[in-house]
Amino acid sequence: MSTRRLSVAVAVLASMILASTACVKSDNDTHEVFNDPDGSPGYSLPDQPRVVALGWSDGAVAAELGVAPVAIYDWMGFGAATKGVGEWDAAAFGGATPELISAQSAGEFNMQQIEELDPDLILDVRAEADSAVIDNLRKIAPVVTAPDGTADYAVNWRTQAEIIGAALGKRAEADKIIAETTTAQETVEREHPEFANKTFVYSAKFGTAYGAYLPGDARFDFFAELGFVPNPPVTRLQSSGFFAQVPVERVGDLDAQTALFTTIGLPFADLENDTLINSLAVVRDGRAVKLPENDPTVQALSAGTPTSLRFALERITPQLARIAATG
């Protein structure tokens, strides 16, 4: 994963969560599409719509709702083997094989390619709020985006599923998969009261620097919903939205009661052999999980869909329970 992907992860503050209060607007000239409070889209789709999914994990969410996109922008580089999504979502496509739009251009879409796909609807929900791009996409088909004022990529997993569900006329299905994941999280939280109020960091080593995900990012919020709390020194670092840079002299801020460390664009050995990280008590005392960036659990957390989060939950819970048992 390149450092560019630091700016395309899932992030949103709790106050930004959509509560189905956005208005519906479907303008035949501009093809603007927002969400209807009752969950009904403001336009008509055929029974088997041709959907092009451009936002981070938008295509995976659509597939989870029973609508397999004809094309997906493969942000995470999963590739054709799993149809441009993680292994947890590949089966949702059934026999359909989406065209994969390369992530090499980092969001600079090939408009001709998209137009030739002849979409009925374009999903660009968890994405950069680039008005020029959206205006060009609107010339091709209706575009579903995050609500006005939402920061780039700052749509949490529940909101994303709600928006896409409403856009596809699948709001009931969206509510169902959201409830399934929420119930799974609540079950783990109830069965592991030892997680409650334990300080936690989710940190990444990249280049010669370090960073930590913050409350509001799906990767951190996933653990917060299990009872963990942010390590206070990390919350005081200067942030760039969902991520705080951690200078070398502040690596000690990562020394929480529990931690997950991973890499971005580096060999895992660079993390395993990092003397600063290994000097932290959370690592020395065996209270940290170290995972490479291509580990399925890390990828599932990064994907941040209802299904991927359940996938991650099943795999990370035993490791967290072992750590919590050490005190």
* CATH superfamily heading of the largest domain: Nitrogenase molybdenum iron protein domain
- In CATH, the architecture of the largest domain is 3-Layer(aba) Sandwich
The description of the largest β-sheet is: 7 strands, mixed
Strand content: 5-15%
Helix percent reads 25-40%
Separate helix tally: 12
Q: In sequence order, what are the helices and strands, one letter per element?
A: EEHEEHEHEHHEEHEHEEEHHHEHH
CATH topology of the largest domain: Rossmann fold
Unreliably modeled segments: 1-39
The average pLDDT is: 84
What is the number of strand segments? 13
Q: Termini, distance in Å?
A: 33 Å
Summarize this, please?
The strands form two sheets. Strands 7, 8, 9, 10, 11, 12 and 13 form a seven-stranded mixed beta sheet that branches. A six-stranded parallel beta sheet has the order 1-6-5-2-3-4, with helices on both faces. The protein has 327 residues and is of the alpha/beta class.
Description of the molecule:
There is one protein chain. With 327 residues, the protein is an alpha/beta fold. It has two domains: 3-183, 3-Layer(aba) Sandwich (Rossmann fold); 192-325, Nitrogenase molybdenum iron protein domain (Rossmann fold, 3-Layer(aba) Sandwich). Helices cover 32% and strands 15% of the residues. It has twelve helices and 13 strands. The strands form two sheets. Strands 7, 8, 9, 10, 11, 12 and 13 form a seven-stranded mixed sheet that branches. Strand 10 (239-240) and strand 11 (243-246) form a beta hairpin. Helix 11 (296-303) crosses helix 12 (306-325). The longest helix is centred in the middle third of the chain and has 21 residues, at 171-191. It is globular, with a radius of gyration of 20 Å.
